[in-house]
């Protein structure tokens, strides 16, 4: 079964390796993804009528909202972009145009499509690159026997550090930087000032470069791959992937909710304006990009917010209607934090162990040490501000600060992080809990 045809149960199981708990949210994204896959096989007359089951995640910071969306996209190899909606302002104000979300998503899809095509042509590109380097070293008129000898040396790596002069393609002879600007509300898509100023002067020109064989091979391999890739097909595949498999994660959507009873000042107008600009994007529209038009009708939008000072009903009714699936993520308790430190495939203790192994230090965490770290995180979240699982990062960084700093002089040593070690290292903070806000943790 291909990645994109994973069953909801398989998706949830895969997400369990990286995100602790939050089963309701996992089931919601799994169903939404599976429905999008099912849509591809329904009769054509009804296919366009089936809209994505867009999701609104509600929950405090640091409980896994972003991680669920990010891991989902990685699991299915879908084009994915995370955006903070507070970066956008309504049309007519200074700020980014919401259409740039889709342009950025398309850029991600193009990069993915290029990687796939490069893998398909890497064999031919490598042969062509090797031939070019050998011809540069011995000359095109050399005998085949001589060329074969140098080709073998090239493959063995014995010529890697040899310096050669070779012609490489130089496409930016004009020296323009190519800055990109969004035009709010414009139908022209993206205006690239660098392209406009330098297109007439910019021509593909070979430039003689003096470099090592190793660096020359990398540059030539890229050139030969580009020659073998059909750019038109690449863009076509990327646009199709964006339209059918793209996932947009709209973070901090609660920050643009117009709170009931609030004054209708300029800030409130701006928030409501961003919501109105997002409506056609989520409902389905055509966004003009420099690579061609992109339809957003079947892009999956996952939005999230803590909604501490506002609530989902404060969003515009039209926007609420375009986010039909609602899931609430729960705040993390001590047991959840213990599981976060132990269960995920690449949990934090494993990451720190791997880092210390580079310096030949054997780092180990006991169960009592992990539980004490989790307890400290809970206490700090209650006393300072609840930032969820992100508190574990700050605690572990503080806990291992000395070991990390002195690692080069402690090579070959063993360090055990147990309950006593945690209490000793964090004693200054834990002693006076009422004044904990003064500390970084």
Describe the protein's architecture and organization.
The chain is α/β, with parallel strands linked by helices. It has three domains: 3-106 and 238-328, 3-Layer(aba) Sandwich (Rossmann fold); 123-236, no CATH class; 334-427, Helicase, Ruva Protein, domain 3 (Orthogonal Bundle), CATH 1.10.8. Helices cover 49% and strands 14% of the residues. Strands 2-7-10-1-11 form a five-stranded parallel sheet, sandwiched between helices. It has a two-stranded antiparallel sheet with strand order 3-6. Strands 4-5 form a two-stranded antiparallel ribbon. Helix 1 packs across helix 2 and helix 2 runs parallel beside helix 4. Residues 171-191, 193-202 and 261-267 have low confidence and may be disordered.
State the main characteristics.
13 strands, Rossmann fold, two-stranded antiparallel sheet, alpha/beta, Helicase, Ruva Protein, domain 3, 441 residues
Helices and strands in order:
Blueprint: H1 8-16, H2 23-39, H3 44-47, E1 55-58, H4 65-76, E2 80-84, H5 100-138, H6 144-156, E3 163-170, E4 180-182, E5 190-192, H7 193-198, E6 205-212, H8 213-228, H9 231-245, E7 247-251, H10 266-283, E8 286-289, E9 292-295, E10 300-305, H11 317-321, E11 325-328, H12 334-342, H13 348-357, E12 362-365, H14 367-383, H15 390-399, H16 401-406, E13 414-417, H17 419-425, H18 427-431
Parallel strand pairs: 1-10, 1-11, 2-7, 7-10, 12-13
Antiparallel strand pairs: 3-6, 4-5, 8-9
